[in-house]
Amino acid sequence: MTNQASQRPAEMAKAYDAQQVEQRLYEWWEESGFFKPADDPAKKPFTLSMPPPNVTGELHMGHAMFVTIEDVIVRWHRMLGESTLWLPGTDHAGIATQSQVEKLLRSEGTSRQDVGREEFLRRTWEWKAKYGGEITRQLRRIGASCDWSRERFTLDPGLSRSVRTAFKRLYDDGLIYRGTYLVNWSPALQTAVSDLEVEHEERQGSLWYVRYPLAGVGSQGKGYGTSTPQPPTSNPCGSGTWAEGVTEWITVATTRPETILGDTAIAVNPEDERYADMIGREAIVPATGRRIPIVADSYVDANFGTGAVKVTPAHDPNDYAIGQRHRLPMINIMNRDATLNAEAGPPARIASRRAKIWWPTLKKKACWSKPPRTPSRSASASAGAK
Prior knowledge:
Radius of gyration: 31 Å
Low-confidence stretches: 218-239, 351-355, 372-386
Strand content: 15-25%
Largest sheet: 4 strands, mixed
Helix content: 25-40%
Distance between the termini: 76 Å
Number of helices: 10
Mean pLDDT: 81
Strand order of the largest sheet: 11-12-10-13
CATH architecture of the largest domain: Alpha-Beta Complex
Order of helices and strands: HHEHEEHHHHEHEEEEEEEEEHHEE
Number of strands: 15
CATH class of the largest domain: Alpha Beta
């Protein structure tokens, strides 16, 4: 009797152990060049470029979903006998990476400004080299059949130059232009932040009622209460003299009184009979003395607040749209560090979150009141962009 037991293969494991199988098998696939396209001009080519995940990120369900779908497509085209390339790459994730590097510098008692541009760039590339490969390792682990020999990075010299060249050509051809537009600005990172990096949330705020003096037309003869004083020509801001002797007002309702300093118009609904005789007149911005027009715009909800709203095109998307329709100026009252600039008048150099300290000036002149709290919308940078 032969020893048949010694000739039998090892018993198959009762449970599938991915750690024992998949990584070894994938390494063999990659080393054997199975993911590279065939170098055969006679074969029909098929190329798929991977949407580049953030180089410093980690795999999440969204990545797993698109990688699975693309992998199925790519493997199918290989089975059709086509010369198939799935081109992998990673995105530079500038804001998220900058945030992490700045956090590291703060832990060392320094900052981006202290070390200077060149050293900061060196430290950023160093961070990328240290933490940048995790997501590609994870893509390999889930079996993505990319040609890793062609892996690209969005800041590779060739790719980066191609992007700059493409944008310059678009600009030279008049297809893109530089204009004044609203952005999500991060005072901490000193850069604009994508809409995708901004988280909006509802907060219980207050609806403030603010009275704006109406400017008289004086000798222009339109009969709009010539007893209403014109804005003072000397020291119109800070002391409240802009409201002295006023007999006519228009009251607006707002959840953001701190942006009054950047107002360039007051808007009312064209169908609102309460304000029909005010359209075309001018009001005086409290605390600054600036004269602004009263315009008619269908965006305004006549049933909200007083039916009259302040328009600050440089600080609100809806106001920006109104400003575009009426060709209103955009007055940016914010510095890059979130303090108020000279356009804000007397409250300049006050941090934006403390801008409300000038409001007592309005209260003193009976220009405002505070009704019950109401929901308002605010925005903050997401985790990757703080």
